[in-house]
Amino acid sequence: MSATATTNPIDPKLKTKILDFLATWKTGSLATLTENGAPQSCNIMYVHDQDLNLYFVSGTQSAHSQAVERDPRSAITIYAHVNSALKNHGLQIQGTTRLVSDEEEYKTVLNLYAKKMAQPLVRPIIKQLMKTQPFYAFTPTWIRFCDSRVKFGFKEEHTF
Length: 160
Prior knowledge:
Elements: H1 12-24, E1 27-33, E2 39-48, E3 54-57, H2 63-70, E4 73-79, E5 89-99, H3 103-116, H4 118-122, H5 124-132, E6 135-147, E7 155-159
């Protein structure tokens, strides 16, 4: 799997918070750039690994897949689904996205999906779709964990 840059190791406590948060939620918003440089975003269902890489499935002809082929720079936001400003918390992440082309990595990501999204993968049509659609890997270069439960506006950041 693609490894997050380790030149600047993340604080273990922050990493644990982020991993716990990623495990709790399944959806995020991926932002990419159009051909003329305009921002665009789409919703994704993701899985993650222990290196904080995120993975999602998408057709190669989708606008965001085409965008990362031109320019891999991208961003993802994931937030807790709460309706209180004092309980708002989530992630803002910058990084790069690429098509998963290695067969072993693809199998590993498929297994991550099977564990996290167990219910949908039971359905034969979804199972077949997951075998035929490509996965994309998002590798973070910068991450911010915002948590208004600690204090309004509280945030912790890390650059990899």
